[in-house]
Amino acid sequence: MARDLLLRVHQMSRQVFLVPDFETNEGTGAMSFEMSKRSLFAAAALLAVTLAAPSAHAQSRAETLRYVTGATVNTLDPNIPGSTREAFALSMSSYDRLVSFGRKQLNGKWVFDLDTITGELAESYAVSADGLKITFKLRPDAKFQDGSPVTAEDVKWSLDRCVSAPILGKAQLLTGSLTSPDQFKVIDPLTFEVTLPKPDKLALPNLATVYPIIINSKLAKSHATADDPWALNWTKENAAGSGAYIVETFKPGEQVIAKRNEAWNRGTPDKPAAFKRLIIQSVPEPATRANLVERGDADLVIDLQASDVQSLEGKGKLKVISTPQYNAVTFISMNNTIPPFDNVNVRRAIAYALPYDDMFKAALFGRGAPLYGATWADGKPPSGGYPIPQPIKLDLEKAKSYLKDAGMPDGFSTTFSFNVGQAATAEPMAALVKESLAKIGIKVDIQKLPDAQMSTAINEKKLPFFIEGIVAWLPSTDYFYRNFYTGKQRWNYSSTDNAELEKIAQEARFEADKAKYEAQGKALNAIHFDQMFQIPIWQAAQDAVMQPTVDGYVYQFTRQVDYRNLSRK
Amino acid sequence: MNTIGATLLRAGRRFVSSLPALFGVLVFTFLLMRVLPGDPAVFFASGPNAGKEEIEVIRRQLGLDKPLPNQLVIYLADVGRGNLGRSMMTGQAVAKDLRERLPASLELTLTALLIALVSAVPLGVIAALRPGSLVDHGVRLFCSLGVCVPTFVSGLLLIYVFYYLLGFAPDPTGRIDIFTTMPPQRTSFLIIDFLLAGDFEGWSAAARQLMLPAFTMALFVIAPLARITRASMLVSLGSDFVRTARSVGLSWWRIVVTYALRNAILPVITIAGIVFSTMLGANVLVEKVFSWPGVASYALDALLVSDYAPVQGFVLLMATIFVIVNLLVDLLYGIADPRATVA
């Protein structure tokens, strides 16, 4: 009897905790006939639990999106300095903006489309003929999550905050000529107007980025203090938006749980988001994340190791969508002010001495879009886009002759740095770089730096030779060149100071004529290749691994998942 | 009664006398963090458009624009008021973060220590009873394996077998299955809170979640405990009083457990105390592998991004726990061996 009971308890516990399907009914019933009264009672109690739990469980599971990530959501307001990318992604769903990006297909995969701007809280918008005024009509039915209507006053307060408070949005909106509260005007409760000093094609796209969230101004103001007039301390831990998901639990470093906002209708089909519940869970170990999604316990993950993605794709049970991150670039960068990299021939020599193919395979398992090995007809850039594949490849003879031109036929010694956070891809790259450069006499010392130390050294322009990446939310050629190749600032990794490049990039910013803009882009690309400020090597793929039932994934400008896109088939 | 009062008084005095050491740890960590290269302001100003201005804003927020002595005085004053500062990484107050995460670490470490003690002491005793025998070698092999396999390897292996292949274990994501409702918070120890709430289903879920990480950690510390037990048992089994006990014909159980083991247990308690403190701070790999929301992984993440306040808070917490554990160990000595007192 005791053995029987043990067996039974064992089986029941299996049913309760492990197999959330409907066979439990039959199994327990068949066993119960030889039980004593007492154990029958216990079994009945357990049975009740068994029957109740899995069905509710299974149902809610299907309507829940469980997303696992190695990173963490650290604030509910994406504007707070130090916000993580996961915080950006959550804010896309917990807040609305005036407008949002559409989507387009790129090589058969859905990606965000910078050129299609659709209304989100705005029902419609109109740009004046001279391009200096943008008028937004707000949705009359839009409500904040506390039920109060969204008005033009809220929009004004939110955008004023974005350009005046010491927050991340300020620098972003600057790139769209949005700098002062004077530019934002309430016409009537549902009409809002933005005035621009110059017609700026990035003004409207900027309003679709992460930062210009529309906040429930009454609610936020009630939490403002004299020291904190924009209620930053409060919004950090409380969401006061009108977005598709309402945050229920927020545990930084562990998880965020949000439920669907049933009243939200800003998606394309004018109905709420598909998943009833959203779980964003931090799982630091990549192997564990791979196990979770393979076992079906997690629905979606985008930050697996390339090797795991490779093997999961091979097994064919899961859906893998790999999109080259077309708004991001990985560089092997050189500081153009530190000798010997101040010599253009040294930079060219390096460009022809890197084992591109080997690096691409070792670091990314070939997952991404290479930016090397192109052929440019008559040596001119074929396009004015950025980044475009460069006509460089491994050619040690050429590298040696450039080194000779630089007056260093015997090579030199230098350090090559990367950060610990990137070690999975950067470590094999560094080893290959070291090996290959040794062949032309350049002795490389590999330096692995903790993330904060690496950012500090880059900011202080102390590293001569390193791996780094950039990303632009609004990837247009002039934006890349203005932000990543000018000025004494952190993102100018190569410390480029080229008057001609700067002049063309600034002109291109306000160029309305498409053909002229393309010509300017080509000119910029030609300068880049000639001077070889740094070496763009590839655009790594973002590998979204998901259950076959998950549908609607779109690669977003944030390089994160927009949970509102997703549904279950 | 009187002796207990006296012991407590002495324990209190011991604690007070360790305060200067804690103060030293506090100042040392503070200075160490600032000497290390890496500027948190630059790291956290990492939005795609963050420039000089953003870096300055963060530096001001963190108070890093003030001279070092001023920063130290402000920090000490804050700590005196129980404010450990704010973490940039999680956006929360460090004291709050630690308060939420310490129970998770303690629950895991205590369970692992319990498992380790329950298996290590008998193993050590058995090995000592038959030194050189097959059993002794078996125990030695087991211990060597436990110690030489790094915890993240054994952790991943256990996950692979029990979660991925067999499906016995729940998914290794933290303290509780994400679909289980949390019990009302009383002690913050989930397995106790669930019991208090009378939620046995929840209790079992939490316990199952706890098993794999606890065993992973236990495997690593069984070795030192078992080896110490064995060595110390060998000495005590060979001593005069055991020979006397044997010669007067006492039962096997009384000889081994009451006389030999009780005399052999002092060094085991000492090692257990040290092992506990080490595990609490050094189980970062286990916490990472099992997504356990503990203090060690919190401190490591903070260290990587030069987030000063959490690291300082963590070191202070660990130092305090170390002091308390040592005090407890000393008190346990008194129980194990009445001749030892808390001096």
Task: Provide structural commentary.
With 569 residues, chain A is an alpha+beta fold. Chain A has 19 helices and 20 strands. The radius of gyration of chain A is 28 Å and the shape is globular. Chain B has helices spanning 2-17, 19-35, 40-44, 52-62, 68-80, 94-129, 134-148, 151-165, 190-197, 200-237, 240-247, 252-282, 284-289, 295-304, 308-336. In chain B, helix 6 (94-129) packs antiparallel against helix 12 (252-282) and helix 9 (190-197) crosses helix 10. Chain B contains 15 helices and no strands. The chains are: A alpha+beta (569), B mainly alpha (343).
Structural class of chain A: alpha+beta
Q: Give the helix proportion of chain B (percent range).
A: over 70%
Mean pLDDT of chain A: 86
Would you report the number of β strands of chain A?
Answer: 20
Instruction: Supply Rg of chain A.
Output: 28 Å
Give the distance, in angstroms, between the N- and C-terminal Cα atoms of chain A. 47 Å
As residue ranges, the low-confidence spans of chain B are none
Oligomer: heterodimer
Average residue pLDDT of chain B: 85
- Percent of residues of chain A in helical segments? 25-40%
Lay out the secondary structure.
The complex is a heterodimer of chains A (569) and B (343).
Chain A: H1 2-17, H2 24-31, H3 37-62, E1 64-69, H4 85-94, E2 99-106, E3 109-119, E4 122-127, E5 133-138, H5 152-164, H6 169-174, E6 184-188, E7 191-195, H7 203-206, H8 217-221, H9 232-235, E8 245-251, E9 255-260, E10 277-282, H10 286-294, E11 300-301, H11 306-315, E12 319-324, E13 328-334, H12 344-351, H13 356-364, E14 368-370, H14 396-405, E15 413-419, H15 423-438, E16 443-449, H16 451-459, E17 465-471, H17 477-484, H18 499-509, H19 514-531, E18 534-546, E19 550-551, E20 567-568
Parallel strand pairs in A: 1-10, 15-16
Antiparallel strand pairs in A: 2-3, 4-5, 5-7, 6-7, 8-9, 9-10, 11-18, 12-18, 13-17, 13-18, 14-18, 19-20
Chain B: H1 2-17, H2 19-35, H3 40-44, H4 52-62, H5 68-80, H6 94-129, H7 134-148, H8 151-165, H9 190-197, H10 200-237, H11 240-247, H12 252-282, H13 284-289, H14 295-304, H15 308-336
Helix pairs in contact in B: 1-15, 2-15, 6-7, 6-10, 6-12, 7-10, 8-10, 9-10, 10-12, 11-12, 12-15, 14-15
Membrane topology (chain B): Multi-pass membrane protein
Organism (chain B): Bradyrhizobium aeschynomenes
Family (chain B): Belongs to the binding-protein-dependent transport system permease family.
